[in-house]
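Quick start: what a row looks like.
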Amino acid sequence: MDGPYDEQLKSLLHGRIDLIIGALRYPAPSPGVVQEQLFSDPLCIVTRAEHPLTKNTDLAPAQLQALRWVAPRPGTPARDVFASYFNNAGIAQPETVIECSSLASIRGLLMNSDLVALLPRKQVEFDLATGSLAISPQPLSGTSRDIGLTYRKTWVPTTLQQRFSNQIRAVVDHLFIE
């Protein structure tokens, strides 16, 4: 089930879903949940393939601030990382921001404009392989967010659910440890 985190959390707390896989929240969103970190996911500046930013590795934070951005809505971990990057540089967040959490919409906006976004590389891997989008070589320190499992403290998984969550852990270990 995909959707806004607040809706997923409500469903989790009311027993309509058993597990959330995604960005972890700090502090934990409820005393009734457990958050298990699986990996840390660095965010990259993603642009259309021919964007001038794809060749520039030495932009100051103020130059990045002047770009036109697509960013997640406030209160999400990715938006917190976005805000922290500029706050840590001692400057205000960019003024030209389109708030969007739909990956399909973000992809369309990036491919057809000079907008830029801060996204995990894995989310746009297909677009990178086809040459539709590109990752800026500009390094951005402090732009990782933790990805993991969130479940109720009282959750007792069925055998199938336990196998599923163990398989998720095994795949993550294979992808990120080796």
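That is the whole record. The first strand starts at residue 20 and ends at 23. The first helix runs from residue 5 to 13.
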